[in-house]
Design brief:
There is one protein chain. The protein is of the alpha/beta class. The chain has eleven helices and nine strands. Strand 7 and strand 8 form a beta hairpin. Helix 2 runs antiparallel to helix 3.
Length: about 325
């Protein structure tokens, strides 16, 4: 009888162990299946919001091409300049700000080499812009010369205030000078003399285009960025930032129809504007930056896309995913 009870107890324990193993296997399988379903659902959502992001880019492209088709002049009363464009989509929204990158100072213009012993025009203008933005005098020379060294294609320090590889290799995070055009204006933060505070203060007046050409659309420079326009004109003309703020405030709603009309304004009509400065003025644009975001089911994607418009066709030159700060306000900040 005792032996029978022991065998029954062993059998019960065995059954319980088998049951426990089966429950564990079932729970593991259920957990893995649930995780797989959630992973698949997440991938589907991510794929959908990615394509919503691509739709934001295509929408920006369509708007630009439509505005170029309707007008030979680019100004702030056109659809592309509407701030915070929002379009509803299935279970979400897409939002975008388009910024004319011919309304900011192209930092890559400093890559143009100087002729003879004359200071390059772009370098003079950049120093004037930094002064207008109230950057300390010593820092102005350091930043300007170091930026030129960063962009040129050699390892030679052109002026005592400049910097090349030897300076950057000695930093806490060693790196080299690019010796090439900047891809994004944030690259300026790596240049000697550009502190975080200075960068935050000046970056909204600057941009980095894939060209060394400096061209400013007088129809799209906003009044609070009048320093950009002011910096183009020689100091000996006696013009002030306030003069250009007033000029932009009185700008026609649809902008000036030509550079000649702009130069015939009361402020400039009696001034002798150098030809090299006149060649930097325009009433149209070719580079635009889209700051876009897409939201779907509590998921958000932010992106930046640089367009180049030629023959009324907008082509994506550069695309990158962006941060939260680029989703809101950067369209206005620029």
């Amino acid at each position: 009888m005792t032996s029978h009870k022991k065998q029954a107890g062993i059998a019960l324990i065995t059954v319980l162990l088998v049951l426990a193993i089966m429950v564990t296997i079932a729970a593991t399988m259920t957990g893995r299946m649930t995780a797989s379903l959630l992973r698949t659902e997440g991938l589907n959502y991510s794929e959908k919001i990615y394509w919503y992001g691509q739709a934001t880019i295509e929408l920006g492209r369509m708007i630009l091409e439509s505005d170029f088709e309707d007008s030979e002049v680019i100004s702030l009363d056109q659809i592309w300049a509407t701030p915070d464009l929002v379009f509803p989509v299935d279970e979400g929204t897409i939002t975008g700000n388009i910024v004319d990158y011919r309304s900011c100072f192209n930092i890559n213009a400093l890559s143009v080499e100087k002729e003879d012993d004359t200071e390059p025009l772009a370098l003079t203008q950049f120093k004037l812009l930094l002064n207008a933005l109230e950057v300390e005098d010593f820092s102005v020379d350091v930043i300007a010369e170091s930026t030129r060294d960063w962009l040129d294609n050699n390892d030679t320090v052109d002026e005592s205030e400049g910097a090349e590889d030897r300076y950057y290799e000695a930093q806490n995070v060693p790196h080299l000078a690019a010796n090439d055009l900047m891809v994004d204006i944030s690259e300026l933060r790596s240049v000697q003399g550009v502190t975080g505070d200075i960068y935050d203060h000046i970056q909204k007046h600057l941009c980095a285009l894939p060209t060394s050409e400096q061209l400013i659309n007088v129809n799209t420079v906003k009044q609070d960025k009048a320093e950009v326009l002011y910096a183009l004109f020689p100091e000996e003309l006696g013009l002030s930032i306030e003069d250009f703020q007033g000029l932009l405030d009185d700008r026609p709603t649809s902008g000036w129809s030509s550079v000649a009309d702009f130069l015939q304004t009361d402020l400039l009509t009696d001034k002798i504007i150098p030809e090299d400065v006149q060649s930097q003025l325009s009433v149209t644009s070719d580079y635009f930056q889209l700051y876009g975001s897409a939201e779907f089911d509590d998921r958000t994607i932010a992106l930046k896309s640089l367009f180049k418009v030629e023959d009324e066709e907008a082509t994506t030159v550069r695309f990158q995913f962006a941060g939260i700060d680029d989703m809101v306000g950067n369209g206005d900040a620029q």
